[in-house]
Amino acid sequence: MFAGATPMSPEELQSRYVAEIEKRGVDDKYIDGVEERELMQIAIQHGFSTDRARTFLADVCRERGYVIEAVVVQQIREKLLAKARRNRAIRQSAFESVVREASNLVGCTTRTEGDVRKLVMTTMDDSGIARIKKWWGGDWYSRMKRDLGLA
Predict the structure, then answer these.
(1) Cα–Cα distance, 12 to 133 (Å, whole number)
(2) 135 has which bridge partners?
(3) What is the structure's pLDDT at 135?
(4) What is the pairing mode between strands 67-68 and 89-90?
(5) Residue 24 confidence (pLDDT) above 90
(6) Around 67, how many Cα atoms within 13 Å sit in the side-chain half-sphere?
(7) Average pLDDT, the chain
(8) What CA–CA distance (Å, rounded) separates 87 from 94?
(9) Is 49 left (phi over 0), alpha (psi -120 to 50) or beta?
(10) How many beta carbons lie within 10 A of that of residue 44, not counting itself?
């Protein structure tokens, strides 16, 4: 615990999280990585373990209908790995399927399809999943990255 920080009870932390989440995510119902770190830091400063802080955050977000980006990224990673071939490569059709599934996960937020595509592409790159190129269709992945401003 940091100097000057007083311990909080679980109930106080939950109330604080509700207030902080409402302040940060009221416009979009989405807690991105930066917001998640800030919220986690509040709990840690008040004597809670990282695991306990993450559990509180997940519980409050679930109760209030907020989506945590880290949870979405984990589910995207799992879906990409499940759809990838043994060589960790994925077809465009499987990529599009993951985008549709991820869009459903963030459906209650203000995230656009472009935002979801970027998140899936970034997760794909971070996970070391390659794309399968079609010989006659060119490189769909590079073209899509360029269109989304990621290349």
Answers:
(1) 53
(2) none
(3) 60
(4) unpaired
(5) no
(6) 19
(7) 87
(8) 14
(9) beta
(10) 16
Tell the burial category of 95 from Cβ atoms under 10 Å away from its Cβ (0-12, 13-18, 19+): buried
The Cα 78–Cα 56 span in angstroms is: 23
SS (H, E, C) 51-101: HHHHHHHHHHHHHHCCEEHHHHHHHHHHHHHHHCCCCCEECHHHHHHHHHH
Model-level pTM? Answer: 0.84
> Residue 138 forms beta bridges with which residues?
134
Angle at CA of residue 65, ends 28 and 48, nearest 5°: 100
The token pair that represents 53 in the structure block = 């802080």
CA distance linking residue 17 with residue 83, whole number of Å: 36
Nearest to 65 by CA among 105, 6, 125, 15: 105
Task: Please give the DSSP secondary-structure letter assigned to residue 6.
Answer: P
Whether residue 57 contacts residue 64, with contact meaning beta carbons closer than 8 Å, is answered with no
43 has pLDDT over 80? yes
60: pLDDT confidence band, cut at 50, 70 and 90? Answer: confident
Cα separation of 147 and 151, whole Å? 8
- Amino acid at position 33, single letter: G
